[in-house]
Write a structure and sequence with these properties.
Structural class: mainly beta
Strand order of the largest sheet: 1-2-3-6-7-8-9-10
Strand content: over 45%
Radius of gyration: 22 Å
Shape: elongated
CATH class of the largest domain: Mainly Beta
CATH architecture of the largest domain: Beta Barrel
Order of helices and strands: HEEEEEEEEEE
Number of helices: 1
Mean pLDDT: 82
């Protein structure tokens, strides 16, 4: 009986906490603030490769966020840079058996996977944001050359809520870290992104 009473007590406590959390969520989202604790963000814009082993081109930024406190959101990003294969990063010289610099600014492709924290300060319809996290960037120039970077990614911007669940705006972000080049050692990765798009809160 004593064991059964303990189990019932635990179940009751969990139920009370769940109801309390649900009531708190209803108070938080009723009549103002965010429409819900989840968000999907889509942004596009130019990505500038700052070093000669960093792809540059057109960036597609895709994010999911989940609210964990009043201003803090868990943030996951899956981003794509499309710059093509025209003389990007390092090129292979088959005659001399070595790589050489042939960067032209907007060239090379990349897949970026990042997880971290996003801070959001809702002020009426206006929302300043900041975010930071870490992850991997896989770079491709086709043919012989590829690289994998371990990056820190941080940035900030401003969004404006057109309706309670939909915001528009833009941000700037930078990704930096070491990149490990296929067959050619280690170098510095650095990319600057200027992005604009929409955010759906639910």
């Amino acid at each position: 009986m004593h064991s059964g009473a303990k189990i019932l007590g635990i179940v009751a406590a969990v139920a009370v906490l769940s109801l309390g959390g649900s009531a708190d969520a209803q108070r938080r989202y009723a009549g103002g603030g965010f429409a819900g604790p989840n968000e999907l963000t889509g942004q596009i814009g130019p990505s500038f490769g700052i070093t000669h082993v960093t792809p540059g081109g057109f960036k597609f930024d895709n994010e999911y966020g989940h609210q964990v406190s009043n201003i803090t959101w868990f943030n996951v990003q899956l981003n794509f840079t499309l710059g093509g294969e025209s003389h990007g990063g390092l090129c292979w010289d088959p005659h001399n058996g070595r790589y050489y610099d042939c960067w032209e600014g907007f060239s090379g492709d990349a897949i970026e996977i990042v997880a971290g924290v996003r801070l959001k300060w809702l002020r009426g319809r206006l929302m300043p944001t900041a975010k930071f996290g870490g992850g991997l960037v896989m770079s491709f120039w086709g043919g012989e050359y590829g690289a994998t970077a371990i990056v820190f990614r941080g940035g900030g911007g401003v969004k404006y809520y057109v309706v309670r669940s939909l915001a528009v705006g833009g941000e700037a972000a930078i990704s930096i870290g070491p990149t490990f080049i296929q067959h050619n050692g280690t170098d510095a990765y650095a990319a600057l992104d200027l992005l604009g798009g929409i955010e759906w809160n639910f």
